[in-house]
Amino acid sequence: xxxxxxxxxxxxxxxxxxxxxxxxxxxxxxxxxxxxxxxxxxxxxxxxxxxxxxxxxxxxxxxxxxxxxxx
Length: 71
What we know:
Blueprint: H1 2-16, H2 20-55, H3 64-70
């Protein structure tokens, strides 16, 4: 764990020493990477939900008491 913290701190130090243009490019790359990772996560969740729905594991209700029991 300490090794990871040191590596992270080393990375941060290198980032802080970059020129502004490089920092902005890195920011854009990270934002796009994060958005892509979120899309992948949503796609995985959608597939899991479809599988649960088709297997009958997914339950729907508009009854508040029934929903509380499902939790």
